[in-house]
Design brief:
single chain; about 650 residues; mainly beta; seven-stranded mixed sheet; 58 strands; signal
């Protein structure tokens, strides 16, 4: 039994020791330690504290100089804290106000003007905010579309960064540039940078083939297709050199005497030399058998009378000197007639004479020496477009749409443009319904219409009315009910309902005969600004009526009254009599009329009052001797005025 108890006690002791070892080896919490001070004088020995008999005594642990805030706060009340530790609240109060991480910032300045090639140098200016460490450096990084970031500059202490775009980066793609600081680690915004693409050139013939056969003296047309950043410069194998072209593809005409192969031997742009490909071979047949044929006849399947067109044909072989090519046209079953002048170049542009009516015809090309005839192509001569807008009358609700009908004749497909800007093209059928959604009552007409033969004739109109809520104008409360004649004021207003596009708002006021007349009005979304008409010469103040009217539709607001005061008509009258003993004071009275407050005045004794709204106005005076008071100057909101009357104060000694 004793052995069993001993084993249990030994197990508990080992477990307690293991827990204590874990506590000591665990990472301590962040400490708050007061700044170091001069070592204090040795403390006098203190009497040992009286043991608390109610608590179990635990042997004192060795003093830990890294006492945590938690340990300090857990100390029993009455025990003095260690001299090198603080409570958490006191430690936070004494901490210096250090800059937080958001106070550090790097901003790359505008580099949108940069257009560079892979392998070239760039300069990246930037701005910083915050107290970066004196050992801090800045490095530029380039980021590709996958998010991979690589450094492209040496560390620098300040703006700008001189970086090198890696030569393996692909031109024509957009990358992002970023600057990163080391102490602390702060990143700038990401700025896009598009790299220019290296050039490439491919040569072929104008129709995309690689070989062509021509007769001696004829021309062949080469095509050089370019990629990369413009402009380009390139050289052909026959030493033809093109510098700084912006044309892509670039076309070149050659006339070799013998068979010749053309290649691009070099191409360059701002990023240097590029790659070339392709070959165009021009075969010259010195003694071929003449052959004449039409090609791409689908391009001339429909023709318009009076409209020039080019006849696509191919003449190969050796023709006799003085040979001419002629285009001929015939009705079904009729004889062919010339419709072009004789031409020796092989490129004929002609037109259908106006004498040929719309219908089905046959077209061919002939040569004179030797006499050859090409195959025949069936063509249709179509008439010019005539578009007519049907005279429909629609009545739509608010925000509703309707359909108007347009009828076409002549060669299609057609297009039509209505007077409100509604446009449709590639119209295949006639009549055609076109959708409209007017906001106001609208009279529709055709602005332009046409088809295969270009702009044709058009006519017709249709009226669409729109049901809308009634219009009304509300004249809000005037900011003031007294104004000076000739002054400019704002008239607040609100509207409801719908007004036509040509509507005009105007402020009207009654004249001396009581008839409403329009005032020059400037309209804004919330107020109308008007200049108040001058009153009649004999009127110093007059009540006039004012309203707002609209022209389309004709609507009027409610009528308000406005007192209009003539300028420079104010009168200030002084009155009062009194007797006072020396050293005492009394009051005199001033009355104002025919002016707009506030009033400013000066009395004959020099007393000045600036801007009073009181009427009548009482003012205290304390003359040393008998004095007569008058007004020497008067101003009001409508200009200057005059004074009259007087007040006499008698002083008894």
């Amino acid at each position: 039994m004793f052995r069993f108890v001993f084993v249990i006690f030994l197990g508990l002791f080992l477990m307690a020791g293991h827990a204590e070892a874990q506590r000591r080896t665990a990472s301590p919490r962040k400490q708050l330690v007061t700044p170091k001070k001069k070592a204090p004088a040795p403390a006098r020995p203190q009497a040992p504290a009286v043991a608390d008999s109610t608590k179990t005594q635990v042997p004192a642990a060795p003093k830990d100089t890294s006492t945590t805030i938690a340990d300090t706060l857990a100390a029993p009340a009455g025990n003095a804290a260690s001299s090198d530790t603080l409570t958490e609240a006191a430690a936070e109060a004494k901490l210096p106000k250090a800059d937080s991480i958001h106070s550090y910032k790097i901003t790359i300045e505008d580099i949108s003007y940069l257009a560079v090639c892979p392998g070239t140098n760039i300069t990246i200016p930037f701005k910083t905010e915050g107290p970066f460490d004196e050992d801090n450096t800045f490095i530029a990084h380039i980021i590709d579309a996958t998010g991979k970031s690589v450094p492209i500059s040496l560390p620098v202490k300040k703006s700008p960064v001189k970086a090198v775009i890696p030569s393996y980066k692909v031109g024509g793609e957009v990358y992002r540039i970023q600057i990163i600081a080391s102490i602390p680690v702060v990143k700038s915004q990401e700025v896009p940078l598009r790299l220019l693409q290296a050039p490439a050139a491919k040569i072929d013939l104008i129709d995309g083939t690689q070989t062509v056969r021509i007769m001696p003296g004829q021309e062949a047309h080469l095509r050089v297709s370019l990629t990369g950043a413009a402009p380009w410069s390139f050289r052909l194998s026959d030493s033809t050199t093109v510098l700084q072209t912006l044309s892509n593809p670039h076309y070149i005409t050659v006339r070799p005497a013998d068979v010749k192969a053309y290649r691009v031997t070099g191409v360059s742009n701002a990023c240097g030399s590029g790659t070339t490909s392709g070959e165009a071979i021009v075969n010259v047949n010195n003694n071929p058998e003449p052959k004449l044929e039409l090609k791409e006849v689908e391009k001339i399947a429909k023709l318009c009378a009076g409209v020039p067109f080019q006849v696509p044909f191919n003449a190969t072989g050796k023709y006799k000197e003085g040979n001419k090519f002629i285009v001929q046209l015939a009705e079904r079953g009729g004889a062919f007639k010339n419709i072009s002048t004789p031409d020796s170049t092989g490129f004929i542009t002609t037109q259908i004479p106006d004498s040929y009516k719309p219908g089905e015809y046959r077209l061919r090309v002939t040569s004179t020496s030797p006499y050859l005839v090409s195959q025949t192509a069936n063509i249709s001569i179509v008439s010019p477009t005539v578009a007519t807008l049907q005279k429909d009358s629609l009545r739509l609700g608010e925000n509703e749409s309707g359909m108007l009908t347009v009828k076409f004749t002549g060669g299609g497909p057609w297009f039509v443009l209505l007077s409100d800007g509604t446009y449709e093209n590639n119209i295949q059928e006639s009549p055609h319904k076109i959708k409209v959604k007017p906001f106001y009552d609208t009279n529709y007409q055709i602005t332009s219409a046409g088809g295969l033969c270009g702009v044709g004739k058009f006519s017709g109109s249709a009226k669409v009315t729109v049901k809308s809520p009634p219009a009304s104008i509300t004249l809000d409360k005037l900011p003031q009910n007294m104004v000076c004649a000739g002054s400019t004021i704002d008239i607040p207003y609100k509207t409801e309902g719908r007004y036509n596009p040509n509507n005009k708002f105007t402020v009207q006021m009654t004249d001396k005969s009581g008839r409403f007349v329009s005032l020059p009005t400037t309209v804004t979304s919330t107020a109308m600004q008007v200049k108040i008409a001058a009153a009649a010469p004999e009127d110093t103040t007059k009540i006039q009526k004012i309203r707002i009217v609209s022209s389309s539709p004709a609507v009027s607001s409610a009528i308000e009254e406005l007192e209009v005061i003539a300028p420079d008509k104010a009168i200030g009258e002084v009155s009062g009599r009194g007797t006072i003993s020396a050293g005492r004071s009394t009051r005199i009275q001033l009355k104002f009329k025919n002016g707009l407050p506030p009033w400013s005045f000066t009395l004959s004794d020099g007393t000045a009052i600036n801007g009073t709204f009181l009427n009548p106005y009482l003012i205290s005076v304390s003359p040393a001797s008998t004095t007569e008071y008058t007004i020497t100057s008067l101003k009001s909101g409508c200009g200057t005025g005059t004074g009259r009357g007087s007040a006499v104060v008698t002083v008894e000694n």
